[in-house]
Design brief:
3 helices, 275 residues, 13 strands, single chain, alpha+beta
Amino acid sequence: MLRSKRKAVASGQWSVASAVETRLAASGRDRCLCWGKPRLCLKWWMLLIVSSSLVMSQDKAKECSVGGDTITAAKIAREIALDARHPAAEWAAAEAVSFCADWQGKNPDPGRQTLVRALWTPQTLYLRFECRYRELFVFDDSDANGRRDQLWDRDVAEAFLQPDPSRERYYREFEVAPNGMWIDLDIFPGGLSDLKSGMTRSVWLDREAHVWAVELAIPVKALTQKFDPAAEWRVNFYRVEGPREPRFYSGWRATGTPQPNFHVPAAFGKMRFGR
């Protein structure tokens, strides 16, 4: 469906360009519009080029940005084993959201598209990221258990989870790198601390396809003491790629800040729990 839509838009762009070119070339009257007035012709063609570029950019964003402002975690009947390379059949029940634009919602790059799915049981929230990449930049050192402070200074996929939206500045942050390094944090006004959530993970890297995937299993008790599946959480998902600035900072729900900043709870999307 997305491919068909892309072809339709591309065809429409070509038709507009062809029509303008044909009109300018077809009659002496139209040629006279530019005769002796090169600036007029230049303005026409600049307008055409800018308009075509804008439509192509919007088409790219639509192509790799799927879903509105809500992700629904599909309910599953049992706990599943994490296997990023061979995902459990239960993941097929989870509808993905995807994104490829930067943190401002601009500069879409399908080569860095991210898909996110969610599953849940009363004990566990599962997340699965599928990440296209152009290049990989990861740390080569970590704690013995894979934890790495400042992990965001290299390539990561991130989930910000806020079970209680009434406490706007309180939420949990989870990050995993393509090589399996991780960090989990408790975010609160004026600071952060290690969450020690008990999160487990599975990571798979396909260098030929330029894709890496990660599955997370996060104990619900590390997120909230009173889990209510009827409640609506606030969440956001992000990616960072690149070893140094300018890096590619992308987000599911754009934060819109002048400089890259993921810590904008007001911009978070919604998570609902399917029945």
